[in-house]
């Protein structure tokens, strides 16, 4: 099979937003306790944070981390997590039927974030709480000294710039679930109050938990009609898995993500048009990943109130990594509207990083496309043309075999292409004409993630079983040419 790309440095979608390479730390399972934080671990630092995990987070190139939930946040009392640790209460977490010790609260997390060199996106509880608590936590986090809560914090304000106005409020599973009208009013009033405290905040309203939610579209329209002037972005969440073993559809998951993004953009723009507003609402794709959700849903929810139980510690395959790489391609392609994105989650819980108690931390297969995309995507995202054969899928009909995106840095001349071959059996011979970039481009690096065994995984015993390998790339007659193996993700940089 043959495919080609049409690249032109003048056709720019938007600058690459570093916030595309976000992640998510929820007080769920072993993401916080036993993930980023394990004081008894030999690699723990004086604050109890695992330095082996921190090193992997930095290597992954994570830019922003959403915290503290997730479904957890809709029953969370942030003030339980401040002050002397010995005085902090143990609480029930209704979302995951576990116990929250509050040993890690917002001050500890901000310390971790500084060590990891990541920005924090803070999610507010609009499930069981409302405007006053949002103002209180904002005062604690961001107010300069001289008020009751700022003085309880002590030290400099954290200066958090992005706040999520609740989590998945459209979902009946959410503690304090609301109708779109109830939520839209609450989001608008919370945003109005927060803005009067700090006008420059970036505020994100809850969109749909998935594009297959029965209220998808209508939810966004109602919420934005009520909160358009008060918010900057609306969230999108999506998790993908091979449903009933349907690999061809699973490999095309990014088709669904593309459709999700264009649908939310169109809905937001239509509300903007009705309101005669010149303002544009962006998308915060603040939960996305591969998640074997139906396996999780098939098991009865344990009501055992354990501390940091093992929950959804999915072990990712080669095929999962290719899909993750493709989802990043989709997010980058929409950089004009997707201004932040968070892979969910960071450690242990459906995560690219796994960590065992008193044992090692390692990279799952999905770590690699994320780390390489974060490192290599620089400058501007290009609006590229793709010529590709197609294949049939059960869920999305006919889809292109090849998907790709490119970034170009006018300052350095670097051109990077990210490409996926979704075909189950056949390689793709890819041609990328380079004439538009002038003469003299050379190959700096080229990587492919591929394995004949699509089910191969990285484990504690074999942590590097799946890793990107150097790809062969030929530059001839003004074009780059390479072979993309069946079910593979590839990135190459020219300069
Ligand atoms: O990431 C796991 C869960 O998925 C989050 O808590 C929730 O927001 C979503 O449904």
Automatic annotation (TrEMBL):
Enzyme Commission identifier(s): 3.2.1.55
TM segment ranges: none
Domain Alpha-L-arabinofuranosidase C-terminal stretches: 286-488
Stretch forming the signal peptide: none
Keywords annotated in UniProt: Carbohydrate metabolism, Glycosidase, Hydrolase
SUPFAM superfamilies registered for this protein in UniProt: (Trans)glycosidases, Glycosyl hydrolase domain
Database matches in SMART domains: Alpha-L-AF_C (SM00813)
Top-level taxon of origin: Bacteria
Recorded catalytic activity of this chain's protein: Hydrolysis of terminal non-reducing alpha-L-arabinofuranoside residues in alpha-L-arabinosides
Similarity comment: Belongs to the glycosyl hydrolase 51 family.
Oligomer and partners: Homohexamer; trimer of dimers.
Listed name of the protein: non-reducing end alpha-L-arabinofuranosidase
Organism name: Paractinoplanes aksuensis
């Amino acid at each position: 099979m043959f495919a080609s790309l049409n690249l032109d440095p003048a056709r720019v979608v938007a600058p690459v937003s570093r916030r595309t390479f976000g992640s998510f730390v929820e007080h769920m399972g072993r993401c916080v306790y036993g993930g980023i934080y394990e004081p008894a671990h030999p690699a723990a630092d004086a604050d109890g944070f695992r330095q082996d995990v921190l090193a992997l987070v930095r290597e992954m190139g994570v830019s922003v981390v959403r915290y503290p939930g997730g479904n957890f946040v809709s029953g969370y009392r942030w003030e339980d997590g401040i002050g002397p640790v010995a005085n902090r209460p143990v609480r029930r977490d209704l979302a995951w039927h576990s116990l929250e010790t509050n040993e890690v609260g917002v001050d500890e997390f901000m310390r971790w974030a500084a060590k990891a060199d990541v920005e924090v996106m803070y999610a507010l509880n609009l499930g069981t709480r409302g405007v006053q608590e949002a103002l209180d936590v904002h005062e604690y986090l961001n107010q300069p000294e001289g008020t009751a809560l700022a003085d309880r914090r002590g030290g400099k304000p954290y200066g958090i710039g992005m706040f999520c106005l609740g989590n998945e409020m459209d979902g009946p599973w959410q503690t304090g679930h609301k109708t779109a009208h109830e939520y839209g009013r609450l989001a608008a009033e919370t945003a109005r109050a927060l803005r009067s405290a700090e006008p420059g905040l970036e505020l994100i309203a809850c969109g749909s938990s998935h594009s297959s939610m029965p209220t998808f579209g209508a939810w966004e329209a109602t919420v934005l009609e009520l909160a358009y002037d008060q918010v900057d972005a609306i969230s999108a969440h999506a998790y993908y898995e091979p449903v009933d073993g349907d690999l061809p559809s699973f490999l095309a998951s990014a088709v669904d993500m593309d459709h999700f993004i264009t649908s939310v953009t169109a809905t937001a723009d239509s509300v903007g048009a009705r309101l005669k507003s010149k303002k544009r609402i962006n998308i915060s794709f603040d939960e996305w990943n591969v998640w074997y959700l139906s396996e999780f849903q098939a098991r009865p929810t344990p009501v055992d109130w354990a501390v940091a139980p093992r929950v959804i510690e999915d072990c990712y395959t080669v095929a999962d990594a290719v899909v993750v790489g493709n989802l990043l391609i989709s997010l980058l392609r929409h950089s004009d509207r997707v201004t932040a994105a968070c892979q969910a989650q960071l450690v242990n819980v459906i995560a690219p990083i796994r960590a065992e108690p008193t044992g090692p931390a390692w990279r799952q297969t999905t770590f690699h496309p994320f780390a390489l995309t974060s490192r290599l995507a620089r400058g501007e995202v290009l609006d590229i043309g793709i010529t590709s054969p197609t294949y049939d899928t059960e869920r999305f009909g006919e889809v292109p075999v090849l998907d790709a995106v490119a970034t170009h840095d006018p300052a350095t001349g670097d051109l990077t292409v990210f490409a996926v071959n979704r075909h189950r059996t056949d390689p793709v011979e890819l041609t990328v004409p380079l004439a538009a970039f002038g003469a003299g481009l050379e190959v700096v690096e080229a990587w492919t993630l591929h394995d004949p065994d699509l089910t191969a995984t990285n484990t504690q015993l074999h942590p590097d079983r799946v890793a990107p390998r150097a790809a062969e790339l030929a530059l001839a007659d003004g074009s780059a040419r390479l072979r993309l193996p069946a079910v593979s993700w590839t990135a190459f940089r020219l300069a």
